[in-house]
Specification:
Length: 352
């Protein structure tokens, strides 16, 4: 396969994914191999939902829709325009995926294949249904991918380089285990929002999507707010109210009740509205159904703090506050060129 063949295959995959949405699963009979795969993928979505209670229809379809919107010619060409694919030698890339949100390892999967490499995928048991099926579709519409993609639950062998995602604890294991291989090792990161007190209700409503999408389980989920001294949270609570049905989701409600009980027994001060708790805390990683907040008095000091803590932060949501900021409501809509941890995966794969 040449690069254009690989691009064309992923565009077809994007069109395939575009058929699946929460409100309208509409089969497109004109798509290649659709009769073979459409019903089967609907079944895989059902299995993914049954296997992992966090993978609701809403979250699965949001992920599929996001990838469908990303895998179009214009965006793929923009993504790849700065790279040279002529000199890279064929390698086998081992990819160890997390399982916190649906298809969370898909960008690494695409990056390695678009670079021309073979891949050896070790999935999390929490997210094992969707990607293998999409791989079969990809191999059918572009036979050149056959033999280039393998899945395993066994010990990784016969690979040249590694992309591994996990917790801070597993990252230490990864760093030791893969010390002799070129590797990208990803650890825990969280996203934060900086509020300046003049945000509109529309901006705060958009921020609520950054907080609640995927139940806050993703590294791009906002888990911490920085707010001016004496900030009034009334407008914030009004803006996030549209997400109040989330409390009827059993797993979320159980976490809400548990964490609320812990805070009350520990006599921690907190603010809450029946489905979200706000707790003053200097940590970045907050429990489910909780967002931490921290007051600031000086904007420049806060900018310095955020730069100093950059290895703990995935996204900074703000408006005209800091370089590289993400707009309100956009953290869960990354583009192909928005790399996790700001590590250029394709550049790494082409040079190692």
């Amino acid at each position: 396969m040449d690069l254009q063949q690989r691009i064309n295959a992923f565009v077809k995959l994007g069109l395939f994914l575009g058929q699946f949405s929460k409100n309208d699963n509409e089969k497109n009979d004109s798509l290649e191999a659709n009769d073979l795969f459409y019903d089967g993928f609907k079944h895989q979505i059902k299995l993914a939902r049954e296997h992992n209670g966090w993978f609701t229809d809403d979250n699965i379809y949001f992920a599929l829709d996001s990838w469908s919107n990303a895998l179009i010619h214009r965006k793929i060409n923009k993504w790849l325009s700065k790279y040279s694919f002529n000199s890279n030698a064929l390698k086998c890339v081992a990819i160890i995926m997390a399982g916190n949100i649906p298809l969370v390892g898909f960008h690494d999967f695409i990056s390695a294949l678009i670079s021309g490499h073979d891949i050896l995928v070790k999935q999390s048991s929490n997210d094992r249904h969707l990607l293998p099926y999409l791989t079969k579709y990809l191999e059918t519409i572009e036979p050149g991918f056959k033999g280039k993609i393998k899945f395993t639950q066994e010990k990784l062998t016969n690979y040249d380089t590694v992309i591994a995602t996990g917790s801070n604890n597993t990252a230490r294991y990864f760093e030791y285990y893969f010390k002799d291989k070129p590797a990208i090792i990803r650890k825990n990161r969280n996203s934060v929002a900086v509020l300046q007190g003049n945000e509109s209700i529309e901006e705060l409503e958009a921020l609520s999507n950054d907080i609640f999408r995927y139940y806050g389980l993703g590294c791009r989920s906002v888990s911490k707010l920085f707010v001016p001294k004496d900030y009034n949270f009334d407008t914030f609570f009004s803006a996030v109210y549209k997400w109040h049905p989330i409390i009827h989701e059993t797993k979320y409600a159980n976490n809400y009740d548990y964490n609320k009980a812990v805070y009350l027994m520990s006599e921690f001060d907190m603010l809450e509205n029946g489905f979200l708790m706000l707790k003053e805390d200097k940590s970045y990683a907050s429990p489910i159904a909780t967002v931490f907040y921290e007051f600031y008095e000086n904007e420049e000091s806060l900018r310095e703090k955020l730069k100093k803590d950059k290895d703990s932060i995935q996204c900074i949501v703000s408006k005209d506050f800091i370089d590289g900021e993400v707009a309100f409501g956009e953290t869960q809509k990354p583009e192909l060129w928005d790399y996790a941890d700001n590590i250029d995966t394709v550049e790494f794969l082409l040079k190692t």
